[in-house]
Specification:
Blueprint: E1 2-7, E2 11-19, E3 29-32, E4 35-44, E5 47-56, E6 59-66, E7 75-79, E8 83-88, E9 91-97, E10 106-107, E11 134-138, E12 141-143, E13 160-172, E14 176-187, E15 192-203, E16 209-219, E17 225-227, E18 233-239, E19 251-254, H1 260-264, E20 271-278, E21 281-289, E22 300-302, E23 307-310, H2 312-316, E24 319-321, E25 326-337, H3 342-350, E26 353-355
Parallel strand pairs: 2-26
Antiparallel strand pairs: 1-6, 2-5, 3-4, 3-6, 4-5, 7-8, 8-9, 9-10, 11-18, 12-17, 13-14, 14-15, 15-16, 16-25, 17-24, 18-23, 19-20, 20-21, 21-25, 22-23
């Protein structure tokens, strides 16, 4: 079977989703010219797509579907001790830790190709100890009519738990691997506030640039919920490795070309990138906002000391969820080494759903 799609920009080791009928279940790769790339049939928003992780020039691209392995490393998910470990090939890329030793789950560390971590995971630090690598949090949540809000960002004062319930919807194929974690956000008194599900998707990419797609759903299952206009929020939070901090030589940049905390903090942008030198290597992390997110584009709580969070609540005001309502967010996290055209990759992100010709 052959498919043709139009690439708006050159694709460099990135996933594309191509809507088509009749994709064979046995698909494991696609051939472009004489090179095989990992691929698989997947379902997205209830429709059938071909997912392929490819490199190609801009323009019309012809793909030949194959049931042969591409020969590239695969993404695998392994049960750890209170964690899901994510491997690409034989190397651990990251882990999702949900151990009850912690007040809230986190994803980390995020491995570089040279043995470091893009993010900070320091269990001994006294400076923002709740900033563990990649995490979720909102610092002002209360049930409507309650006198006091619960803080699900910090871990002091009237803090709340994000209690792990189970791992759901685990799957892997030649192109990606994914799972969903279900948590209940609960106060210290046992009162429940929100059901939360976070779905992680990891792609079969090489170390130059690797993506994590994060889809989050909050559901007001236990009553009407007020989310306050708090600075202590994302809901997504990323804490950069210390050598990448803006006050230690790191660079903060947004999609409009603003640089430094002074220019980026509190400003709306479709993406922000935080980069610098780590163990002698140029590397960084970008976060892409999704146009389906509420009050897109996001405003950014991005600091020289290493915090990195898209936050609409503080800058655009709080929200109320009625019982049974859901609030959804989607983000792409881009972990890059060396030269990386973040703007071009964002354009491909917002145009990655293609229709076969």
């Amino acid at each position: 079977m052959e498919l043709t799609f139009f690439a708006a920009r050159p694709v460099c080791g990135a996933p594309v989703y191509i809507k088509a009928d009749g994709i064979p279940e046995s698909t494991r790769s696609v051939k472009i010219g004489d090179k095989l790339y990992p691929a698989a049939k997947v379902e997205r928003n209830g429709e059938e797509y071909l997912l392929a992780v490819i490199s190609c020039p801009a323009g019309d691209v012809k793909l030949e579907l194959s049931d042969c392995e591409s020969g590239s490393d695969k993404v695998s998910l392994c049960d750890g001790d209170g964690a899901v470990d994510v491997f690409i090939g034989k190397n651990r890329f990251t882990s999702y830790c949900f151990s009850d030793k912690f007040i809230k789950p986190y994803l980390g560390p995020i491995a570089t190709s040279f043995g470091g971590s893009f993010t900070r995971l320091d269990f001994d630090t006294k400076e923002h100890p709740h900033h563990r690598s990649v995490f979720l949090g909102i610092g002002d949540i209360k049930l409507c009519g309650a006198d006091q809000a619960v803080d699900f960002w910090n871990e002091s004062g009237n803090w709340g738990y994000q209690k792990h319930q189970r791992i759901e919807n685990v799957f892997s194929n030649d192109a990606c691997a994914s799972f969903t974690a279900y948590n209940i956000w609960e106060g210290q008194d046992g009162i429940k506030y929100l059901d939360e599900r976070r779905r992680f998707t990891f792609y079969n990419q090489d170390t130059a640039c690797r993506y994590i797609d994060l889809d989050i759903e909050f559901k007001a299952s236990y009553g009407d919920v007020e989310i306050g206009a708090t600075k202590e929020a994302g809901p997504l939070g990323v804490r950069m490795a210390d050598p990448l901090r803006g006050d230690r030589g790191g660079r903060l940049e947004n999609s409009w070309g603003a640089v430094t905390e002074r220019e980026c903090w509190g400003r709306p942008a479709v993406w922000c990138d935080y980069s610098g030198r780590l163990d002698g290597h140029e590397c960084g992390v970008a976060v892409f906002d999704c146009e389906r997110n509420e009050r897109y584009p996001a405003t950014w709580h991005i600091r020289d000391y290493g915090l990195f969070a898209p936050n609409n609540f503080f800058f655009k005001g709080g929200l109320t969820l009625c019982r049974g309502e859901c609030l959804k967010y989607s983000y792409r996290l881009v972990f890059h080494e060396g030269d990386c055209d973040i703007a071009a990759r964002y354009i491909l992100y917002e145009n990655e759903n293609h229709i076969s010709k």
